[in-house]
Specification:
This protein is mostly helical. It is built from three helices and no strands. The radius of gyration is 32 Å and the shape is rod-shaped. The mean pLDDT is 88.
Length: 146
């Protein structure tokens, strides 16, 4: 049987590990919150970009009836349509989607890490309870021997 000092040392070790994991969870939750806020800003920016392009397309479509009669309107329409449907616009939409998927993956990773920490804390607390029980039993045994 382990000595009271050894059992007490094990309890202290596991309590330190629980404390360290609690601190790690707090840091992870802070990172999660900040990343979630950033994701919201990216989504808002993506929405504003799409809305802006839609507004421009609607305005451009209103000119469509004039292009048959007005050469300047036709040139303007074709130039703007090209700009709004350009590769740059498509690339920007792809970039938003890629960024949002990366953020979501990182959020999942953080949630999993928090879950792993919580599972470890649960296991350490079970060990602490076992060692506290052993400590109590060893103390009773030593008192009986005296």
């Amino acid at each position: 049987m382990a000595t009271l000092q050894q059992i007490g040392a094990q309890i202290g070790l596991y309590e330190e590990k629980v404390c360290a994991l609690d601190n790690k969870i707090k840091d992870l939750e802070k990172s999660y919150s900040e990343l979630l806020e950033f994701k919201g800003m990216v989504q808002s920016s993506q929405s504003e970009f799409g809305s802006s392009n839609n507004t421009k397309m609607n305005a451009l479509n209103q000119l469509q009836s004039l292009i048959d009669y007005n050469n300047i309107a036709k040139q303007f329409y074709n130039s703007m349509k090209s700009a709004l449907y350009s590769t740059g616009s498509k690339i920007l939409n792809i970039a938003y989607s890629f960024l949002l998927s990366k953020i979501s993956a990182e959020l999942r990773k953080i949630r999993n890490e928090i879950s792993n920490c919580e599972n470890s804390i649960y296991n350490y607390n079970r060990k602490i309870q076992k060692y506290k029980y052993d400590y109590k039993k060893e103390k009773e045994r030593l008192e009986e021997d005296n």
